[in-house]
Amino acid sequence: MSRDFSYKIAQSLQDTMMHTALSRASLYFDLSRTWAFADLPNKDALKRRARQIKEFSIEHLDELIAQLRESVIRHGGHFYLAPTAQTANDYVLKLVRARNVKKAVKSKSMVTEEIELNKHLESAGVEVIETDLGERIIQLAGERPFHITGPAIHKPREAVGKLFAEKLGVPYTNDPYELTKIARASLRQSYLEADLGITGANFAVAQTGTFLVITNEGNARLTMTLPKVHVIITGIEKIVPTLADALVLLKLLPRSATGQKLTSYVSLVTPTSPPAPPRHGEGSLPPSLLGKGARGLGHDREVHVIVVDNGRSRMRADAQFREALYCIRCGSCMNICPAFRSVGGHVYAGQTYMGVIGAIWTAFVDHNGQGDLARARELASLCMTCGLCAQECPVQIDLPWRNAQLLSRANEHLGRTPTDRLKSFAYRKLLPNRKRLARAVRAWQLGARVGLPKIVHAILTRTDEDLAHGIEIVQSHQFAQKFLHERLAELLAHNPQGAQHRVGYFVSCGMDLLYPSAGAATIKILQHNGCAVRCAEKHICCGAPAFYYGDELAAKNLARLNIEILEKLDADVIISDEATCSGFVKSYPKLLKDDPTYAQRAEKLSQRIRELSEFLSQIELNPFQPLSEIVTYHAPCHLVRTQKLGEKPLELLRKIPGLQIRELEKSDHCCGGAGTYSTIHHKISLKILEDELERLKATGAQTLMTPCSACMIQHQYGCRRQNLGIQTVHLSELLARAWGIV
Length: 742
Ligand code: SF4
Ligand code: SF4
Fold this sequence. Notes:
742 residues, six-stranded parallel sheet, 10% strand, binds iron/sulfur cluster
């Protein structure tokens, strides 16, 4: 991670004004999105339909580009397919020179940000006025957009008032109504003076040559109609076959973006004048239009359509990242993202697109369509794979999965950082061999007796602050004297006679080495409820840490080993009490889909694996004894989103007489633990943890239950740091107490 990037993260975490504005905006987005989707009877079916439209469009992109070109020219517009950012800019520059353009108005368009059109126009002596209020604010402030749909959401109205007073010479006000009036008055004259209007397009309809542009301010309509020349610039991925397809996507876009059922303005533009000129070669302007006095020929208006490739074709040809082209730029993945909410959009400064989707796009479109993998890796490192974004995405892009693959791709191509090399050593050498891993932990424990972790921590504080923080967390954890795998024989000897179920138990690294009593409780409660439990001969990591933190090769290796080991386990189902492990084993078919030897076997294993609470909800249970405790529940990301089982542990708790369950606000949001995230971005991890602890305190609970060792470590660490006196337990420990088998 570059110093500049770390510095920006640190700065943004301290930017209280930005956080105030961002939390107001986030709250608004959360509430309005829920409201806007409430009247859609089958949101998921609509999302699936939207996804199909995008899949079809990208699959048939070459035909659709040709069809759009035909449609645009047929109606009298000009069409140019720009291979790169540079060629798109060159086309516009030729046009402005030919038309002697001095002033241009522009409505919001991310593609023009991507190709840095303003910079090019300004260097050619053209004054460019942004007409979207948010864009105008950041233009006056000399900044880049903070967010793809809310470019100025980081600026509270007080800051906007000061900016307007300084740049527009108006009296200071922080009244939003007055501020909008000032912006409107200052823009009105520009529309009348401009020789050129530039808009983007949310969707381009190949069949009719129609472009859909949505706004809330009506500025795009003025931009495209008042100046004589209108340039539409959009990406090739915005093309869809028919208007009906565009309207399906339109049902989702404003709902996901701003929480509106529809934006105030939806403009459908089909370039219709002047009469169709003869076809011309792509990349050059038609001589009739470049000639002197073209307007004098009676062509009152002209429309130029530029569709930009700039790396998109490479993305399309890439099986792993093709689906990033399905993005409809709603921005909801950013609105919901805990990392984005912590650091904001300017940490991505210099990049046009933000969040995970922005990381992928950076890898392809930056540097004139060549991509910037190094920068993309930094952006991807911000993701803690919580899956909130994928849940919101209207076109169902598997964002955390793609993010992990991007990290792996970057690590393979660019080489690993020293910290990543250390982690890969663990993924490849320690995690496939539990005994070796256990020896490493024992060595750590021995070292701890002579203060070794403190020395390592002190050295790392100077070289890798994030890794040092990881050491601090591990150092504060009390490892068990006896690991779970060392107790298995004794525990399994208590299998009930005449058991109703033959179940396997997946011994995760977390339960084995960090929380053996929770693992033991799992075995005991299964036995207590009529299960004969058996374990595999070997126990290894499921592969999730390796995969999500950028070593796909190691993850695949671990997945194959697990398949081989667990295939031999004589059990009907295999139970895991680690939400991450059960979630990841269920994802093996996706991980190994191209592996002819393992794809089917992965599928079979994924059908045998059960998360603990999922399994307990499927069998008849013994009655619980009363438990007098006040408990709250944190739902691990990989339980709620990867497996959609977030309610299952709660259903079990509700059966325990006397147990008081207090609801934890945002109980399904990431706690910032995310495996080893704190060794990558410890300041972000801490910020998220602190927010979680505030909510936890508000519950008044004595006990926090969460069925995931990474979440347990994070919460225990946080509670210790703040001296909260709240104990963190695993579901199995709480259930064991309620069954009186501790
Ligand atoms: S998975 Fe979570 S942390 Fe990662 S981008 Fe999505 S919302 Fe953000
Ligand atoms: S990735 Fe999905 S959620 Fe994010 S901006 Fe694109 S469409 Fe919206």
